[in-house]
Design goal:
Blueprint: H1 21-40, H2 45-48, H3 60-79, H4 96-99, H5 106-124, E1 132-135, E2 142-145, H6 146-172
Antiparallel strand pairs: 1-2
Helix pairs in contact: 1-3, 1-6, 3-5, 3-6
């Protein structure tokens, strides 16, 4: 008997109301990570590949893939300086995370996302928020700190979770935070 894979249910933890800076940043980032997965919960692979509205091709699976790429980029590649390549993007397809989903395997992509989140947590663990790194750019290098990454990641997820909310509503009418 063949079963159709569906995105797993999520028990989202409440964001922190009290705590030091690190607790708040990590708590809010985890809240937004779980919110993305909540928006996908219970959907089949085909539903996860359903675009929002024309002309946009934005999908929930594309968002999961994109945020796996972003987790890897900021925590591992930029902060830790690890020499790991892109997950889905390439010179030929710079937005492959969002665009190249027709043949993507959602179950594998969700596992990849979960692994990148775990690796991001491991990378940041034990490092002070004021610890700096240099972001190399064509228009000039920028010194940044780990705190900036947390704030940026919360902003990145918050923006994309708004997209996810609208896509999910289009797919099956489910709304909510």
């Amino acid at each position: 008997m063949t079963t159709t894979w569906t995105a797993p249910e999520v028990n989202r933890e409440q964001e922190p109301y009290l705590g030091d800076e690190r607790t708040m940043l990590e708590g809010w980032l985890d809240f937004h990570r779980q919110t993305l997965l909540l928006k996908c919960a219970g959907l089949t692979g085909e539903q996860l590949k359903t675009p929002s509205v024309e002309p946009s091709g934005l999908t929930l699976l594309g968002l999961v893939r994109h945020l796996a790429e972003v987790e890897r980029w900021w925590f591992r590649r930029q902060f830790a300086g690890e020499e790991v390549g892109d997950l889905y993007c390439s010179e030929a397809s710079p937005d492959g995370d969002l665009d190249d989903i027709a043949d993507a395997d959602p179950e594998i992509d969700f596992a990849t996302y979960a692994r990148e989140v775990e690796l991001a947590r491991e990378t940041a663990a034990g490092h002070d928020l004021d610890e700096t790194f240099v972001r190399r750019r064509r228009d000039g290098d920028q010194e940044m700190n780990l705190r900036w990454i947390y704030v940026h990641m919360i902003e990145e997820y918050a923006r994309h979770n708004g997209h996810a909310d609208l896509i999910r509503e289009r797919i099956d009418g489910v709304t909510g935070d």
